[in-house]
Amino acid sequence: MQANELFTQPNTILLDGGMGTMLQAAGLKLGARPEELNITDPQLIESIHSRYAAAGSRIINANTFGASAHKLAGSEYTLEEIIAAGIANCKRACAPYGALAALDVGPLGELLEPNGTLAFEDAVAEYGRIVRAGVAAGADLVFFETFTDLYELKAALLAAKENCDLPILASMSFEAGGRTFTGCTVESFAVTARGLGANAVGINCSLGPKEIFPMAKRLAEALPGDFPVFVKPTQGGSSFGVSRVTRAEDVVPAIRYAFSENSSVIVEQGLSGKELTCAAYFDGESVKALPVIEIVTDNEYFDYDAKYNGHSDEICPADLPDSVREEVQRKSCEIYSRLGCKGIVRVDYIYTEDGLYFLEINTIPGMTSASLVPKMVRAAGMDITSFLSTIIENS
Q1: With 0-12 CB in 10 A as exposed, 13-18 as middle and 19+ as buried, what is 80?
Q2: What is the mean pLDDT of residues 226-241?
Q3: Whether 148 contacts 182, CB under 8 Å
């Protein structure tokens, strides 16, 4: 497929998935700049692109999301070197599948005036430099994604129109209330991006399909009927972009690492104790809790490697005092009811000397044979097929 055919295709065009999550699974170290791997480990980057292309993606984003002067400050490589290598890796992976290589561009990492110190014209100049580097490297299109500030997106679009004639995709991340972090509405984004020359607009990250769907509908309704709209699902997860920091000097690298995965970051107190999880469900009469699992890992915490590469043990039922087990099950049922949950959910906790701490709720828990909920069901002496039938009938 050629770039000039992008918006004349009668069928759905698949984009790729997250890069940061794949790099973390491959062992990306704390504080490392993902974009530098374009030069230091091009085979790894190319292999990730190739897997997405082989799976059917026809627009592959180069590993250039954070390739801005601000985010690369202190790197031994220039912005131009990193982008050139990133586009080259991407194009090699795309070639066998006829996919397009996109210059992937995220926010600069500095707030624009008046909320920050970066002048609008300076932002336009920096985005111009990024776009020129992408064009020189042979990018097929430009993809601005994960923006939350419409003013900054304006700077990016103006820079792109001034420095290239490639197709431009523009995407913002919206919160549950239907606005971005800085207050931009879906409709304002649609009209502004189209007016400034974007060839397609869309939504990515921050929310799941259920929450994004009504916003995508509003986005489509705010544009002419033939104007392309795309939706890219959230990249994140509880173990993606997470670091446990024990030294003050590691805080900034950890935050930078988290921002390589998403546009919003949470910094919270670390807890040491037993990691517990419990599922709650409605059986048609009342909310019930399944047996509690304790997760044990030799890693520093229950990270991506422990979760998905088999470096953890799940003890089910957990070896706990009756009082603690009953509190976990009772709290799980209470959380289920207070949040108005349906189906089955899994609630995670840390149990410390000071008591029980709620971590998060997983509203779509895994249901493979190796997942936690089926283990709870088996420990409760129930048949998984009958159990799932009960969940479906009462959801």
Answers
A1: middle
A2: 58
A3: yes
